[in-house]
Amino acid sequence: MNTHRPDRAASLHRLGAGRLARVMLAACAALAVLPAAQAQDEPERKVLKVCQDPNNMPFSNLAAEGIENKLAEVFGQALGLPVEYYSFPARLAFIRNTLRYKLPGEDYRCDIVMGVPVGFDQVSVTKPYYRSTYAMVYAQGRGLDDVKTVQDFLALPPERRNRLRIGLYDRTPASAWLNKHGLVDQGVPYQMMSPDPAQYPGELLEKELAAGKVDVAIVWGPIAGFFAKRVSEPRLAVLPMPSEPGVRFDYEMAMGVRYGEREWKQQVEKLLETRRAEITAILRDFRVPLVGEGGTALP
């Protein structure tokens, strides 16, 4: 990961942008608007072919240990199909090189993306299967144990709060939140879409926050929950962040298939309904902060 502090002007530009490039932390900076697609002839499926990032925990990895890997296993069992993965780093052109890539006379590389934000128009998006929110994370035992909510953090005396270094990935809603609350000078931005294939979303928590290079981090909720569970020392506290006027933190997540494959999309959506209990159990096991609209925490 690129962990150097950019010059102040560049930092202010990033921190004031406040635009969600992609909830999965790896997507195109601008979404291409696709025309309405015609229905396609859909072949009989003999294998469930899943598009994945090979190093994107807690979502997916080559060892099939992530949330989306576990969901694929549930779907494969329900369909009576073996699960295969096509792995490609989720940087620019991920969808073009996975779900939509097909050479003449060959099959598509994969048929489903297990996690995309609702509104992502490079794919045909299914009904959502969970909603999560960004979270504030800090290391316990380092002077912030009295902070139990985001409002507690904002209520800290300025002389105390203004000494804190707040780590965040650039081009996320955390940028707009810092700007709104006059905390830009405390922001320590990190690259979201680093060209380094070894980079993974949890580095900000597992390396930077744990080592004390930042005092607080703001990351997407599933990342916060998973790495707070995985990091044993120091223990990490996770505070889900409700959306505010002008700053949206909570997003619905769905699955993505190719445009025109209506029967396949309907089949996926049926599985989302019939396997809801198993899906929720997986999300809970990975400690995904599940919220209602507006970021209100669910029981």
From TrEMBL:
Entry annotated with the keyword Signal: yes
SMART domains associated with the record: PBPb (SM00062)
Keywords of this entry: Signal
InterPro entries membership: Quinoprotein_dehydrogenase (IPR022448), Solute-binding_3/MltF_N (IPR001638)
Domain Solute-binding protein family 3/N-terminal residues, every copy: 47-289
Superkingdom of the organism of origin: Bacteria
Signal peptide (residue range): 1-39
PANTHER family named in the record: ARGININE-BINDING EXTRACELLULAR PROTEIN ARTP (PTHR35936:SF17), MEMBRANE-BOUND LYTIC MUREIN TRANSGLYCOSYLASE F (PTHR35936)
The protein, known as: Quinoprotein dehydrogenase-associated putative ABC transporter substrate-binding protein
Native species: Leptothrix discophora
Upper taxonomic lineage: Bacteria, Pseudomonadati, Pseudomonadota, Betaproteobacteria, Burkholderiales
